[in-house]
TrEMBL record:
The keyword Oxidoreductase applies. This is Oxidoreductase. SUPFAM superfamilies: Glyceraldehyde-3-phosphate dehydrogenase-like, C-terminal domain (SSF55347), NAD(P)-binding Rossmann-fold domains (SSF51735). GO terms for molecular function: nucleotide binding; oxidoreductase activity. Gene3D superfamilies: Dihydrodipicolinate Reductase, domain 2 (3.30.360.10), NAD(P)-binding Rossmann-like Domain (3.40.50.720). It comes from Paenibacillus borealis. The keyword Oxidoreductase applies. It comes from the Bacteria. Residues 5-123 form the Gfo/Idh/MocA-like oxidoreductase N-terminal domain.
Length: 332
């Protein structure tokens, strides 16, 4: 019988009810034992919808439940630090929605609190758990496209008319870099297998949206003259793309960040110029994320390095600093 990780869901945001909770229930390793909200009426409704035995009207009650091994935190960005630390102090393993914090200082505090408590902490970049990522890494490592030179990443959508959206609240960690720019930024770190040296970013800060960055474009410098060129936005036409360029070819990934099954394909262009269509193995990345998290908890071997969230936030905050100062920012 497969060992089960007992989950508590700390908040009823759409990402929780629409993606993560169904995935945990579908996973091989997880079971949801409790859900909490700031009010019992909402958590009770969600508990009934998902046939969950316990509903709480406060996060403190959830953390006090001895039948909860791990918590998933989908709260607004500015609340992540407080509740990750409180969860760690309660002895709970933590899967926290991205971005994990508002800056690298907060992320470091969270990582240290979890290390001190002996619990596993992971940042919920679900796309990294899709089996296609392993296929991409194997193609790159195999030399089919030669030596890596550059990565180009885009992730934009247009939701500018919804001015009540929490993503447009500056104090709460709103903005396109926090929301979608983080995807090409983390993808470049992952595929290059290196940390960036400097960033230069241009952004559109909108007074209509509490002066968050509604669009950002930038250059991220990596060792060896390699680079990521990216753009992200919440006030632009919907699109996603990741292109990995090598000396002898390139890889084009049309749906890099939220693919599941039929949309997991990508294309490899070699010296002939003709694309090789790769029908990557499909999967629900949220299910994979849940199983990989549980495996890390049970084995004591993290799927991703413990310091990764700190490095993610260092890059994001440097991009924001560059955009605000309109200058190149060094990370080394």
């Amino acid at each position: 019988m497969t060992q089960k990780l007992r989950w508590g869901i700390m908040g009823c945001a759409q990402i929780a009810t629409g993606s993560v909770m169904p995935a945990i229930q579908e996973s091989e390793t997880g079971v949801i034992t409790a859900v909490a909200s700031r009010g019992l009426e909402k958590s009770s409704a969600v508990a009934a919808e998902f046939s969950i035995g316990k509903a709480y009207g406060s996060y403190e009650e959830l953390l006090a439940d001895p039948d909860v091994d791990a918590v998933y935190i989908p709260l607004p960005n500015h609340l992540h630090c407080e509740w990750v630390i409180r969860a760690a102090e309660a002895g709970k393993h933590v899967l926290c929605e991205k971005p994990i914090a508002l800056d690298s200082r907060e992320a470091a505090e969270m990582v240290e609190a979890c290390r001190k408590a002996g619990v596993h902490l992971a940042e919920a970049y679900m796309y990294r758990h899709h089996p296609r990522i392993t296929e991409l890494q194997e193609i790159i490592a195999g030399g089919e496209i030669g030596d890596l030179r550059s990565i180009r990443g885009t992730f934009t959508y247009n939701d500018a008319t919804d001015t009540s959206n929490i993503r447009f609240n500056s104090a709460w960690g709103g903005g396109s870099l926090y929301d979608v720019g983080c995807y090409p930024l983390t993808a470049a770190r992952l595929l290059f297998g290196a940390e960036p040296e400097a960033v230069t970013v241009q952004a559109l800060f909108s007074p209509e949206h509490d002066n968050v960055d509604m669009m950002a474009s930038g250059l991220v410098e990596f060792p060896g003259g390699r680079s990521l060129i990216f753009d992200c936005g919440m006030w632009a036409y919907n699109r996603q793309l990741l292109e990995v360029l090598g000396t002898d070819g390139r890889i084009e990934i049309p749906m890099p960040f939220n693919a599941r099954f039929d949309d997991a394909e990508f294309f490899v262009y070699g010296s002939s110029g003709e694309p090789r269509h790769v029908e990557a193995f499909g999967a629900n990345p949220y299910v994979q994320q849940a199983d990989h998290f549980a495996t890390a908890v049970f084995s004591g071997k993290p799927w991703i390095a413990a310091e990764d969230p700190v490095l993610n936030m260092k890059l994001i905050e440097s991009c924001l600093e560059s955009a605000r100062k309109r200058e190149r920012i060094s990370l080394v």
